[in-house]
Design a protein that fits this description.
Chain A: GO terms for molecular function: 3'-5' DNA helicase activity; ATP binding; DNA binding. The complex is a heterodimer of chains A (about 450) and B (about 220). With about 450 residues, chain A is α/β, with parallel strands linked by helices. Chain A is built from 13 helices and 18 strands. Chain B folds into two domains: about 35 residues, no CATH class; about 180 residues, Rossmann fold (3-Layer(aba) Sandwich). The chains are: A alpha/beta (about 450), B alpha/beta (about 220).
C-alpha cells in the first residue's frame, strides 16, 4: 500500500495504466484510500487537463458502453481520457516532516543574484507569488538554489516546470548535484518510471496535467516560452497542481507585458553573471533571401558570414524561420562544409548534435527556434535569417541573441539580424537589449 | 479549426468550389497531407507496384483461395507519416482521425458499386478499443455498410506470417443475407490472408463478385 501511496499522492492518474496490479488498486479503493472519478465530467470537461472546448472534447459512439461517450483530444498523448475511463487520486494529503536536506552547491552569487535570491526568499516566507525577471545569462537557476533548499528543508513539496524536454534535461542534473540526497523525479514524455515519493519534481509543463493539489510551490521556468503564452490549458495545469494558496514563482528573461503588470513581487537582474553587457544585434540586409534559397543559392552576405566563422574557428548557430527553409538550406551549406548540421523540433538526434557543437566536433548548426533557449555554447556566434519574419517575436529574438557571449571566457559574440526589411519586433528586441545593458551597468 | 495531426492553424486555399458548394471540410493541413504517399495502381488485386498481377497474388491463385478476390485497391503506402497517423488513430484511440481519409476511401468503395462490408473486429477487442476503425471511417465518409461476418477470438497481430497464412475459421457468417456484389473494406492489407478468408466464406455463401478496398498496403 505504501508504494501505491508514494506514487499516487498528489497525482491524478488513469486507473488502467498504473504501475501496480489492478487487484491492488481495487483493494485500495475498497479500503477508502483512493477516490475514483469519471475522466470527462458532467459539464464535458476533461478532469485531467481541464480542457472544455467542443473542438477538443469529442463525442463518439462507444462500443464499450453502447452509447455516446466523450473523449479529450487535448491530452490524448498521455493516454486517452474518456467519459468511460476512471481517474484515480489518493484521498489523504501527505504531511512531510521538516529536516535539513543536504545542499552541496558551493558556488557564489553575484550581488544582484543575491539580492534577487533574498527577495524571492522573502516572498516565499510570506507565501506570495514572485517573478524573477533576469536577462539571458544572469544565472537564474543558481539564485533559486538557496530558497529551494530552505523550502525543501521546511518539508515543502516542489515542482520546477519547464516548457520543453530539452530544458528539463538540462536542469535536472544541476538540481540533482545541488540536492544529492533529496528524492527527485524527472518527468517528461518518454521518461523512465522512478519509484518512491519525490519531494522535488522537475517536469515539462505538460506533465502537470497529471498532478492535482500536489505542490506547496511551483517554479515555472522560461515562463514566457511557447507553449505557455498560447496555451491556457497549461496555465490551468499549473494552478491545478498547486495546493490551496500555494505560490508560483515565474522565471523569465522575456516576460510578457501582462506578466509584468500582474506580478506584484518582482526581482530584476539586467546584468549577466560575468558582468559584461549583452551583445547588441547588428542589422544586415539580405534582400530576397527566400528567392535565393528557392533557386538553390545561399545569399552572398550570408555565405561570407558563415565562411568567416569557419575561418576563425568560431562555432555558430544560424536560426531560420521555417523547417522548410532549413531543409532547403541544409544541402547548400553542406557544400561549404559537410560537417554543418541541421536541427529542428522533429529531429530525434537534436541533443546529440548540440553536444557535438559544444565539443567542437561540428562547426555550426542550422536551426529552428527550438534552440532559442536553454542552450549554452562557449564563443557561439549567432545569425538569424529572416529576423523580420512574423514568427520571430521580440522575445524570441532576445532569446536567440542571448545565446551569444554567455561564458566569461568569451563574453562577446556576434548577433546578426539578417533581414529583408526591418520589423517592429527587431527594433523592440534591440532596444530592450540596449536598455538592459544601460540598466545593468549602473 | 486546427490541423488534426500537427495542431497548426488550417490555412485553406480558397477555391471556386468552396464558394458555390461550401462542401469541403479539410481536417489536415497541406504540410501534413503532403507527407502521405499515395499508391499508384499496380497489381490489380493488392496495388503492389509493378505490371499485371504481383508475385504474391499470383501465388494465392495457385491455392484454395483462387478467385476469392476479383479485384482490389489499397490507397496509401505504409510510410512513417502513415504509421504515426495509424498509431494515433488506432492505439491512442483518436476517433476523429477517421475523418482524415474518409472521403477518399468512400470514393474508392463507391466506385465498385458493390455493398460495403467491413472486416469486423472480435467483440472483446472492440470493447477494449471502444470503436471499430473501419466502421468509423465509413461512417465519417457517409457510406452505408452492412456487417456479414463475425470474427472469432484469435488476434491477428500477435501471430507471425506463417501462422497467419495457415489461419482457418477466422470468420463465420452472422446470418444477414449475402448480396451478389460485395466490396470488403479494411484498414490495412498485409499478407492478404484476412481478406481472402473473408472473401472465401462470402463466395461460398453465394456472393458473385468480391472486391476489396484497404486504406494501407503494408
Amino acid at each position: 500500500m505504501k508504494e501505491i501511496q508514494d506514487f499516487l499522492v498528489g497525482r491524478i492518474w488513469l486507473r488502467d495504466f498504473t504501475p501496480f496490479p489492478e487487484e491492488a488498486i481495487e483493494k485500495a479503493i475498497n479500503q477508502g484510500f483512493i477516490a475514483v472519478q469519471k475522466g470527462i465530467t458532467e459539464k464535458l470537461e476533461c478532469a485531467r487537463c481541464l480542457e472544455n472546448s467542443s473542438e477538443k472534447i469529442i463525442p463518439y459512439n462507444c462500443a464499450k458502453c453502447e452509447r455516446i461517450c466523450y473523449y479529450c483530444r487535448h491530452c490524448i498523448r498521455m493516454g486517452r481520457v474518456s467519459s468511460c475511463t476512471d481517474l484515480i487520486t489518493w484521498k489523504e494529503p501527505l504531511e512531510l516532516s521538516p529536516y535539513s536536506h543536504s545542499f552541496s552547491w558551493n558556488g557564489e552569487l553575484t550581488n544582484l543574484q543575491q539580492q534577487a535570491s533574498d527577495e524571492l526568499d522573502e516572498s516565499l516566507r510570506r507565501n506570495r507569488s514572485h517573478l524573477v525577471y533576469a536577462v539571458c545569462g544572469a544565472g537564474k537557476t543558481e539564485l533559486l538554489f538557496p530558497p529551494l533548499h530552505k523550502a525543501l528543508s521546511e518539508g515543502k513539496r516542489i515542482c520546477i516546470a519547464a516548457p520543453r524536454t530539452d530544458v528539463v534535461l538540462e536542469l535536472s542534473p544541476r538540481l540533482k548535484a545541488a540536492f544529492p540526497d533529496t528524492v527527485m523525479h524527472t518527468l517528461y514524455g518518454g521518461a523512465i518510471f522512478e519509484e518512491g515519493f519525490a519531494q522535488l519534481v522537475v517536469a515539462t509543463t505538460h506533465q502537470l496535467y497529471r498532478f492535482q493539489q500536489a505542490f506547496d510551490l511551483v517554479i515555472v521556468d522560461e515562463a514566457d516560452a511557447y507553449p505557455y503564452s498560447y496555451d491556457l490549458a497549461l496555465a490551468r495545469a499549473v494552478t491545478k497542481s498547486l495546493k490551496e494558496n500555494a505560490p508560483i514563482v515565474y522565471v523569465s528573461a522575456t516576460p510578457s507585458k501582462e506578466m509584468l503588470k500582474t506580478a506584484v513581487n518582482q526581482s530584476k537582474i539586467f546584468r549577466r553573471f560575468h558582468g559584461h553587457p549583452l551583445p547588441v544585434p547588428e542589422y544586415r540586409s539580405l534582400w530576397n533571401y527566400r528567392k535565393s534559397f528557392n533557386t538553390n543559392k545561399i545569399p552572398e552576405k550570408l555565405k561570407d558570414w558563415v565562411k568567416l566563422r569557419l575561418e576563425k574557428n568560431e562555432p555558430f548557430m544560424l536560426f531560420f524561420p521555417t523547417i522548410e527553409m532549413i531543409r532547403q538550406a541544409e544541402p547548400l551549406f553542406k557544400l561549404i562544409d559537410s560537417r554543418i548540421e541541421a536541427v529542428h523540433s522533429k529531429d530525434e538526434d537534436r541533443k546529440e548534435k548540440v553536444m557535438k557543437l559544444r565539443r567542437g566536433e561540428i562547426p555550426g548548426v542550422l536551426t529552428s527556434s527550438i534552440l532559442e533557449r536553454g542552450v549554452t555554447i562557449a564563443n557561439v556566434q549567432v545569425g538569424i535569417v529572416g529576423a523580420d519574419e512574423a514568427v520571430f517575436e521580440a522575445a524570441a529574438l532576445i532569446q536567440m541573441a542571448g545565446r551569444a557571449g554567455r561564458s566569461s571566457a568569451f563574453p562577446n559574440g556576434e548577433v546578426i539580424f539578417f533581414h529583408n526589411g526591418i520589423s517592429r519586433q527587431m527594433d523592440d528586441a534591440r532596444n530592450l537589449i540596449k536598455f538592459y545593458n544601460q540598466e545593468g551597468q549602473r | 479549426m486546427n490541423c488534426y495531426l500537427c495542431e497548426g492553424v488550417l490555412d485553406l486555399k480558397p477555391s471556386w468550389r468552396d464558394l458555390f458548394f461550401m462542401d469541403r471540410e479539410e481536417t489536415v493541413c497541406l504540410n501534413c497531407s503532403a507527407t502521405f504517399e499515395k499508391l499508384i495502381q499496380g497489381c490489380k488485386i493488392c496495388s503492389a507496384s509493378g505490371p499485371g498481377i504481383c508475385e504474391e497474388c499470383t501465388h494465392w491463385e495457385t491455392t484454395e483461395f483462387r478467385g476469392t478476390i476479383d479485384y482490389g485497391q489499397c490507397l496509401y503506402v505504409y510510410n512513417d507519416a502513415m504509421k504515426d497517423y495509424f498509431h494515433q488513430f488506432k492505439f491512442l484511440q483518436d476517433v476523429v482521425l477517421a475523418e482524415v481519409f474518409a472521403e477518399e476511401l468512400v470514393k474508392a468503395v463507391r466506385k465498385t458499386k458493390a455493398a460495403a462490408v467491413p472486416i469486423p473486429m472480435n467483440p472483446v477487442k472492440l470493447r477494449e478499443r471502444t470503436f471499430a476503425q473501419v466502421d468509423s471511417i465509413l461512417e465519417a465518409g457517409g457510406a452505408d455498410y452492412v456487417h456479414l461476418l463475425q470474427k472469432n477470438e484469435e488476434v491477428q497481430g500477435e501471430k507471425n506470417k506463417g501462422e497467419r497464412i495457415s489461419t482457418r475459421g477466422l470468420f463465420t457468417l452472422n446470418g444477414n443475407s449475402v448480396p451478389k456484389n460485395i466490396v470488403l473494406v479494411d484498414d490495412m492489407y498485409t499478407t492478404g490472408t484476412t481478406l481472402r478468408l473473408a472473401a472465401k466464406i462470402l463466395k461460398e455463401a453465394g456472393a458473385e463478385t468480391v472486391a476489396f478496398v484497404a486504406l494501407i498496403r503494408a
